[in-house]
Amino acid sequence: MPALTSTPRMVGRRAELDALLGALDDGVAGRPVTVVVRGEAGIGKTRLVQEFLAEATERGGELPVTVAIGQCVDLGPIGAPFGPIRRVLRDLHAAVGTEELRKAAGSVAVIASLAALVPGIAAEHPDTDDPAGEFAEAIEVVLEQLSQERHVIVVIEDLQWADASTMALLKTLASTLRGRHLTIVATYRSDDIDRFHPLRPVLAELDRTRSVVRVDVERLSPEEVAEQVAQLAPDLDPRVIEDLAERSGGIPFLVEELVDLGDRGLPDTLRELVLARYARVGDAAQQTVRTMAAGGMHVDHEVLAAVSPLDDRALDLAVREAIDARVILADGAGYSFRHALTREAVESDMLPSERVRTHRRYAEVLRDGRADSPDEASAIAEHWLAARDLPAAFDATVAALQQSRARYSPATSVKLAERLTELWEQVPDAAARAGTTLPELHLGAAEGWHDLGDSERALRSAKEGLAVCPDDPFTRAALLRQRFVEVFNFEHRNQREDLLAAIDLLEGIDDERADALLSRVFTNLAIGDDGATAQHYAQRAITLAERAGDNAALGVALTVESWRIADDEDDEPRALAPVQRAAALPLDPALRSYTGSALVDLLVRLGRFDEAVIFGEQRYADAVRAGIERGSGASVAYSLARALFSMGRAEDALRYARRARRLTKARGSVVRLIATHLSWNDQAAARDELLSADWALIEESLRTHPKKRTSWAIDRAEACASIRGLPPAPAAEREAALADVLEVATGDAPPALRRHAAVTAAMLLAVSDRDGRDDRRRALAAAVDAWPDRAAAPIMAGFVRALLADAGPVGHRVEQWRGVVADLEAGITPVWHLHVARCLLASALLEHGDRDEAAALLRRVSTEAPGHGVARVARWATELAAQAGLTAGAETPDTPGGADLAATLTPRERQVLELIAEGLTNPQIGRRLFISPKTASVHVSAILAKIGASNRAEAAALYTAALAP
Known about the structure:
The chain is mainly α. The chain is about 65% helix and about 5% strand. It contains 51 helices and 8 strands. The strands form 2 sheets. Strands 2-3-4-1-5 form a 5-stranded parallel sheet, sandwiched between helices. A 3-stranded antiparallel sheet has the order 6-8-7. Helix 27 runs antiparallel to helix 28 (about 530-550) and helix 27 (about 510-525) packs parallel to helix 29 (about 550-570). The protein is globular.
C-alpha cells in the first residue's frame, strides 16, 4: 500500500493553533492582531495556517469571513514591489466584488492607486484629475474599511522572500492595525534569517509591538512522529519508526519524505533525501523540474513551455511524471513545487552552464511577453544577473526602477537604485542606459531612504554620492543639503557647513532649479538660527522661491517664516499672514497638509479655536481623499485634536487624537496629548495604562529629541495640580514636577510652551507651603512680566498673577478672580483654565461669605466641566461644595447613600455606576459590558435620576463614598 503524501489530520500543534484562534477571537471582538509564525524549513508552518483558516471559515458567526492570501516569491534580494500584496488584493476583489472594493477605497486617489494591481477597479472615465495617493496607504484604507462589516484574515507566507515594500507595509500594518475585525498572519523560515537578512530589523521592530503575537513552530516529539507515521503508513514496522524519528529530527516534511522511501535505503545526507523523489523520475522530467527550479516556486505553463527545450507533447509527459512522483503539483495556470526545500535542492543540482542558459531563456521570454508586469520587471533583472549578462541586467533594473517609482514603492525603488550603483562601473555607457548620472542615483536613494524614515541609510547614500560627484555643482549641492538633513536627524548635529558649501555652489547658477534648491537651503539655515540672522535667511528663502516660481519651496519658506515670527519674535498675530499665504498656494496634497497643520497650530495658539477646527477638518478630509492620511493626515489630525480639546469638544478631540495615534509610529506627542486629557478628565487609571503601553516609544522619543521633555514636564505638572483647600498631590512628586515646570516657564522654551508652563507652575505654587521659597514666585512673576501684551498672553498673565496673589484682603482677591473669569470667558485659552478660575473665584467668595454665588458657580462647574473633558475640576467643585456644606450639583438633598444606594439600583446599573466611577465614557462602558453606547446612555440617565446626581462626576463621588470596596 503506497504511503499518503501528507497526513489527513494535523499532528500536534495544539498550542500553536490555539494562539492563532485566540488572535481570531480578538479580531471578532474588534481588536485587530498580527500573528507572526516562525519555524525552520519543512516544520509545517503552511499546514498550521491551513488548519487555522479551515477552522476560521467553519466557525461562522455574525460577521462573514473573508480570507486573502499573499505568497512571497523568491525573485532575488530585491523582488517586485508589493508582490504578495497584489495577490491579497486580488483575493479580496474576488471575494467582495468591484463595487464593494471601490466603496472601501472611498476616494478617487485610493482607487487610482489600486488600479494598476486590481484590474477593473478604476472607472473608465473618472470625473476628477486627482493624482493617485500612496499605494501602502491605499491598502491600509481598503483593509480598514472592509473589516468594519466583515472579518478580514490576511495571510502572507514566506516573509523571508518578501520584497522591501511588502516588509515596510507589514511593519506599518502591524504597528497601527487600522482595521477593526482584522487578523494578519505572516510566516517565515527562521533558519534563513541571519544577521544580514533585510527581514531581521523588521522582525526586531515587530517584537517591540504589543499587538503582535509570536508563534514558534517547534519540531515534533518522537511520539508525535509516530502518530504522523501511523497516518502515512499504518503498516510500517514499529522498529523502523524510532530510527525514522531520529533521522527526520522531528521535521514533518522530512518524515513524509522518509516514509515515501519505503524499503529503499536511507540516504546519507539531507540533500539526497530531499532529492529522492526527483531522482526517481526520468531524464525528461528531471530536466523539466530543473527548468522550473530556475523560474521560482511557481511557473506558469505558458512560460515553462517557452523556456523548455521540449516540444509540447514531451513537456506534458514530463510534467505529468513529476506530478505523479509528487515532486511538483498543478497550481492554477501553472505548476508549483511541493516544498521550497525541493526547489532549492534541484536548483543546486544544475550545471553552471545549464543555469546560465536557462536563466537567459527566462529573461528573454519574460522580456518579450511580460515586461510590463511589476512582478516580471524585477524577475527579468534577476534572471539576467543569474545569466551573467550585466548590461542586460542593468537595463532591466532601470525598467524595474521606473515601474517602482511610478507605483510609489519607495522601499523597492531605493534598493533598485542601489543595485544600479553597484553595477555602474561594470556596464559600458551606464549614464546613457540609465538616463541619469551616478551621483543623481545616490541622491535619489538618499531621498528615498529619508522618505522611509531611515536616516542612517540616507546619510550613507548621500556620502556615497558626494564621493563620486566632483564636478556637478547642482547635484553636489543637493547631496550636501541631504547630508545636512540626515546628520541632523541621525546624529543630532547641526552641520551647517554643508549648507554654506551648498550656497557657494548654487549662488552662481542662473537657473530656476538652483533658485528653488537654494531656497530650501536658506530655509534649513533659518530653522537652525535666530534673531536677525534667521530673519535674513527666511527672507532670502522666500525671495528665491518666488523668483523660481516654485510653490513647494515657497510654501515651506513661508511656513518657516511664520514659525520664526511666532517663536523668535513672540508675535503670534503677525505670524498669521505668512502661513495663511502658504496654505492658500496650489500645492501637492502632502504640502497642503504640512502648511494646513501649521496654520491650525497657530490658530490654536491665538485662541481662534473655531477657525482652527473648521480649517483643520477641511485639510484632514483633503488628506484622506488624497490617500495620504497616514503620513500627512496624521499631523493634521493631531493639530485638530489640540483645537478641539482646547475648546471643550473632548469626544471629537479624542476621535482625532486616537486616529493620529494609530496612523503614525512617531506618536509620542499624540500620546502626551491624550494623557493630558485623561489627567484633566479624572481618568488616572486610563492615563497610566496609556503611558505604560507606549512607554518604550516615549523614552526613545525623549532620547532622540530631548527638547520634547519640556512638553512632558508640563503634562506631569498638570497631573499633580490641585487648588487651595483641597488635598494636594504627594509633596515629593509635586515638588519634582514644580521644579521641572518652573524651568520651562522661566527658560528658553518656545513662548507658547512657556506660557502654559507658567499657568501650571502657578497652580502648584499656590498649593505649596511658602517655606522660604518666595524666590520661585518672584522668578515666575518676573518671567510673566516680560510677556507681550497681545493675543492670549495678557489673559494668561492675569491668571498666573491671580494664582500667585494668595495674600491680601479677600475682597481684593474676589475682584481679581472676577476679572480673570471674565477674561477667560472670551474662550481664547484652554477650557480647563476657565473651570479652574471659576472654582477659585468660588473659593474666594466662600471666604468672603457670598455662599449663594459660590454655590451657583460650583454647581455650574460640576455640571459643565465633565462635558468639556474636565471631570477632575468638576470633582474639585463637588468637594469644595461638600466642605462648605453646599450642594454643587442639582439641589437634591435627600440622595440615598450606603446600603440604600445599592438597593436603589439594579445589578446592571451598579455595574454601570462602577464603570462611571472609573471614568469610562458611554462607548467604553458599552464595549466593557457588551452593550450598545445608546443602551449605556439609558442606564447612565436612570442612575443619575435614581441617586440624585446631576452629572457623572457627582455620581462617581457618591459611588466612592457609598459603594466602593
